[in-house]
Amino acid sequence: MILRPYRERDAAATRAVFERAVRITASANYTSQQIKAWAPVGLDASACRAWAAARAAAQTIVAVADTRIVGFSDLVDRTRLDMLYVDPDVSRRGVGSALIARILSRARDDCATAVETYASLTARPLFERHGFVVIEQLRPVVRNVEMPSFKNARCPRPRMSRRLLLARNVWQELDPLAPRAKLPPSTGRLPKRQEAARACEMWPAAAATAQRLWLMTSKLCPSGSRTNAP
User: Fold this and answer.
1) Triad 9, 89, 79: Cα angle to 5°
2) Which of 28, 43, 66, 119 is the most buried (most CB within 10 A)?
3) pTM higher than 0.85 for the full model?
């Protein structure tokens, strides 16, 4: 299986995955009336165009197995995981988890402080396994039918480049008053203090540059966005 960005020709395939996931997988948690309201049949041309436009406008990622699209997810406005659907033929094979991980990676790259999603009864356990917590229980009405769901959120962990890690260490080496903020263990190997000391000798402007980089990074990825979730 590979993950890749959505392409214009993927509209029909992603719609088919959505409909199969709702009508087959979600039917274990929702009534037939709710399923029909959620995934109506017989879309007209304008509805199909609207679907394609929405997928193209979002940061949509598709999962492909043997040239067939078997799942998709997306990130909207850098902070909302809007859709996550996996074909029932490949359920419980890690497709959903892989898509969530890729979307969270996108959010980290955008330095989002939190990612929200509106999870169905069916999808809630998967999101919780990936560190999302329920913020609110919802009962939206879709086509005059009440659809129980949950507002969930989690904080993606920002990643810091080796250059910024080194800059931070150089600054701390030169300035004893510099903050000693802890980074999550997954940020990679922290440069040794000796490496920072050598960089100080070779990089005369290290202190000023490091402080500027560190302050810029702190503003983009505030410490409150860090989490111990996987």
Assistant:
1) 60
2) 119
3) no
